[in-house]
């Protein structure tokens, strides 16, 4: 077979040795000027940190509130409830007796239970730190695709006019999280 681009002999190869043309129509080493995450870079002001998962202290210390900081309140509330359930399950696994009953325990046991609770919090927060950026970027990509379908001509203007991060979103999340915490305590007591 002859290369359609430079007319060199391709023989039994899937690409041309001389110019890099491949049978599927692409060229090896061809520069692709279209950046697939250009819209996401415009939407997220700290895209590079999120893409390479650097500066993990933000999702570690904020936990489920990191999602609401990145404009995903519902995901933050759901992950907060899942986090509460994980704390409870980890404590049940680490401690062989129920913590809620009135069992007299000495100071050594209280210190041990406190250390176990700190370990449980650190485990769940480490889980947040490892997956929070990936989840946020995935949700942002979906949001951008929906905006492209809904507003094909002016989606970039709408994308750039999105609400910036605000303390009020996090404060609203904290209030709703406290409500979920009270509901969680009621459910734990019921079962």
What does this structure look like?
By secondary structure, the chain is mostly helical. The protein contains eight helices and no strands. The protein folds into two domains: 1-33, no CATH class; 38-190, no CATH class. The chain has helices spanning 38-43, 47-51, 57-62, 65-69, 73-94, 107-150, 155-160, 167-190. The chain starts with 37 loop residues before the first helix and ends with a helix.
Short description:
This protein is mostly helical. Helix content is 62%, strand content 0%.
Write the topology of this structure:
Blueprint: H1 38-43, H2 47-51, H3 57-62, H4 65-69, H5 73-94, H6 107-150, H7 155-160, H8 167-190
Helix pairs in contact: 5-6, 5-8
Q: Please state roughly what percent of the residues sit in beta strands, choosing from under 5%, 5-15%, 15-25%, 25-35%, 35-45% or over 45%.
A: under 5%
Low-confidence region ranges: none
For the secondary structure, the number of strands is: 0
List the domain count as a whole number: 2
Task: State the order of secondary-structure elements, H for helix, E for strand.
Answer: HHHHHHHH
Silhouette: elongated
CA distance, first residue to last residue: 73 Å
Strand count, sense and barrel status of the largest sheet are: none
Which short descriptors sum up this protein?
2 domains; 191 residues
